User: Fold these one by one.
Assistant:
Number 1:
Amino acid sequence: MKLRPHTMKLSEKTVNLLKNFASINQSILFKKGDSLRTMSVMKNILAEADISEEIPQDFAIYDLVQFLNGISLYGDPQLDFENESHLTIRDGKNHRTKYFFADPSVIVSPPEKSITLPSVDVEFTLKSSQLDRLLKAAAVYHLTDLSVVGDGNEIKMVVSDRKNDTSNDFSIVVGETTKTFGLHFKVENIKIVPGTYEVKISR
């Protein structure tokens, strides 16, 4: 079926991506084009992704989970953008929802420019299965910290509790290095869609 101008459908992949983004920030500012970006309210997590759809206009959604749940009420939903204040979710002619946009000024959104690192000091490939095991170990042992550690030979990803010298830990070797370093993140801030990633870290 050919969609009219100002009409779009969200693929399952994009819906799953938006569900992930909702765990970073409950609100989102959609920008015209074929990419999505979000940033946490604390401004310590920023995510961006390309999508297969073309967003026809800029608009803001305050409660992204509610918006996605509303879309799930329909078997084959399409989004019509024919009004500046709201969109219409429809499935055929008999069912429709009028969903009003939020004021963009109340949404914490990323800066206009994309992420560019000043340098790449460490890089490695992180497989989905490796990240899954690390996060599962963090849950099993109640560990709060995820570290990327270089010992001059190997790059390891380690989950531990850095405030407790006697805590359990779990590690996986993810690469090789000639450098010595330690980079530390909170497990709760790892909001990543399942997949294999090329990880690049700047000092």
Number 2:
Amino acid sequence: MSNVRFLMTQSLLAAWQYQYQAQDQEAAHRDFLKTLNREPIQPNKAMLDGIQFENMVTAYCEGNPPREDHEWLEGIKGVGDRVRGCQFQVAAYREIVVGKVPFLLYGRLDGLRAGNIFDIKFSRTYQPGKYLGSPQHPMYFCCVPEAKRFDYVVYTGSDVCVESYRPGEGEPAEQTVRQFMGYLEETGLAPVYIEKWRAK
């Protein structure tokens, strides 16, 4: 297995972490197991709204604004004006070794411009500091070591909020991966990860 690498994404780590924060922890655990098994998860309304909003922001930045009467018009403009000029949907990779195991970190950046990573969010439940413990910005800083700032640009349905992080803020990606693998070993789920997450 010396040539085998294992894929690691922030969405897998986030699904694992969410189990401990969710109001319905059993449902969150079921969703985590689906993610671990790489099964499709039925998107809920919040997820669908997030996808639609991000697509409309990208379209706005490319010269296709929404209708003037669209309920998200101000949010699309507010977020779009902050991320205008970005490269959108940038794939980023980084090989790391944790506990002698090789991993391929993979992230897809919503936007990248001049050393600034942007992540577009639609969250009606946003509170400042919501993403403090997220594995996303540490992993993306690891994948893009030249980046100087990571901005979560959040539309709440009424306001545009920006939550910014610098390199070194948040738990290092390597440490989160180590904890995650420890959890898999303790719960007997490591064989599932080993089978499903081999990097190509």
